[in-house]
Amino acid sequence: MSEPTVSLQDAGAVLCLDDLRFHAVWLRDNALDPDTRDPRNGQRLITLSDIPEDVTISDAHTQAGQLHCTFQPEDKTVSFPLAWLRAHAYDHPHKDRPGRLPDQAEQWDATLSSNVPTGHLPTLQSDPIERRDWLAHIRRYGFAKVTGLQPESGALFGIVDLFGYVRETNYGRHFEVRTEVHPTNLAYTGLGLQAHTDNPYRDPVPTLQVLACLENSAAGGENMVVDGFAAARRLQSEDPHGFDLLTRHCARFAYEGSAGVALRSRRPMIELSPDGTLQAIRFNARSAAPLTDVPFDYMAAYYGAYRRLSRIIDDPSMEVTFKLAPGEAFIVDNTRVLHARKGYSGEGHRWLQGCYADKDGLLSTLNALEAAL
């Protein structure tokens, strides 16, 4: 295979590698030598202030799959694997488009009901390939089911142990979901619940939620999940101005349901990154506080978009429905997937346990498994 073409532009301020361009300051900042990065953990040993402002490249050539650059005024030569440079190239069209999905995410609707991603806990614990694939389903769809739990208190922690740590809140390390006489939260009643994201009144919200079934002999009480990103994109296609309003103006959420707790947050219902990528959905009518960040002239249109999003979320064509049996559980990306429950009767028993965790641990475990396997 022939060596790539290398040239310098702008007096050495830019390097061209075939059709890819790299700034000298970017290459120097990302140097892989042991004086710049710790060879054991990859962390930088220098700051940007340690790099001369007038950094340029005086010489560059390739040999045996490596690019060798000499930086001035340091007169420092550094080598980069060509494959590494191509994998980290930034000289390409960037996808600045409001409402685009995150990389490796796929939107879905009720048609996924026939193929709900599911893992068997004992297998997930013993087989790293199965664990990798199950975690990849969560990254792709934002939720997955688990079977094979022991239907006993605390068994749900075994799911979190697959990738990370429990996030404790004012509800405790875990919480019980069953009927109470004087509930501190409507989740502890037999009422049906609209699809929602949990704890929008926290900042940051818990990014993962696990719900495990210990007992479920009551009539009704099926669980439902809705892809919040798909709902947001549908709103965008039906009402672009309304979508824009829900992304540009903050909603407010609050919870003061127990002594000593007064949680409040101010965030958009639909959150985008600067390049327009969908970042998070916050939707929970039970915890909505008065809107005070929407200008008067936009309030009526904002409520119109809010109502339309609510109807989209309630549309049966958007929801995947299943009824958990004892020993089954599901996990949701709480920044993306809304979950709901149909109402259930007072006959029989329904007992679920829930806990929160954080998505960074899940993605870290997945990245490590993908690299290792």
UniProtKB/TrEMBL annotation:
Enzyme class: oxidoreductase
Keyword Transcription regulation assigned: no
EC number in record: 1.14.11.1
Domain TauD/TfdA-like: 121-356
Cofactor dependence: Fe(2+)
SUPFAM superfamilies: Clavaminate synthase-like
Matching InterPro entries: AlphaKG_dependent_hydroxylases, GBBH-like_N_sf, TauD-like_sf, TauD/TfdA-like
GO molecular function, one term: gamma-butyrobetaine dioxygenase activity
Listed CDD domains: CAS_like
Keyword Amino-acid biosynthesis annotated: no
A Pfam entry, by short name: TauD
GO biological process, one term: carnitine biosynthetic process
Domain of life: Bacteria
Keywords carried by this UniProt record: Dioxygenase, Iron, Metal-binding, Oxidoreductase
Family, similarity comment: Belongs to the gamma-BBH/TMLD family.
Name of the protein: Gamma-butyrobetaine dioxygenase
